[in-house]
Amino acid sequence: MYNVEKLSKNYKQGNVIIKVLDEFNLRINSEEFLCIMGSSGSGKTTLIKILSMIEEFDAGEIYFNNRSFKEFSEKDKDKYREKNIGIVFQSYNLIDEMTIEENIKLGSILSDKKAEIEYKDIISMLNIDELVDKYPNQLSGGEKQRVAVARCLNKKVDCIFADEPTGALNRKNSKKLMEIFKDLNKKYKKTIVMVTHDPFVASYSDRLVYLKDGKIAFEAFKKNREQEYYEDILKCLEVYDG
Length: 242
Fold this sequence. Notes:
Blueprint: E1 2-13, E2 16-28, E3 33-38, H1 44-51, E4 59-64, E5 67-68, H2 74-83, E6 85-88, H3 100-111, H4 119-125, H5 141-153, E7 159-163, H6 171-186, E8 191-195, H7 199-202, E9 207-212, E10 215-221, H8 226-240
Parallel strand pairs: 3-8, 3-9, 6-7, 7-8
Antiparallel strand pairs: 1-2, 1-4, 4-5, 9-10
């Protein structure tokens, strides 16, 4: 699905150039559940934004289904975001003037494709049935997080990018959301690319990559070894996060 080759992204702070991604290479296969970890500033969110065509990159190549990102016009990029991907942002990105129901249904209206899971089932699974007539400013952070996830699930797409999707959730709701993601991946064959700091959340993925100094410093695969995979994640964090 995605092939990232020698990707570089720099930011400038005053006269200092900060390398966020440094000739970074990554292949993301269709129907894969990939987790990206790394310390703050390692480029996780930047990578998600680049793959979502929200942010530009400085050098290298990215191919989506064998088509180079560089071939996409601005109109193509809009269509790609509407039709091919769903995004769960850290900042929720809800529209304050719209009700929760309107926010959730907005994505499916833009994509013009019916989601695999019915709207009523989505709000029930995420326990937000009683919130649909409220507005974003009436919700807590955790409730907004679940609404943002619901909006993403209410849109039929090939790939879901989730940036810290459980960041504002308690353990119970985090587990429930990860079970939904697991079902989307296994049952509905969705590609999921998720950023998290939580080893428990990361353990639901099938592959882990840990970013350090703009490159992949560690990689692990589940391959039907649940406990060992979780232990691999903990060891990785112990080595690289201290």
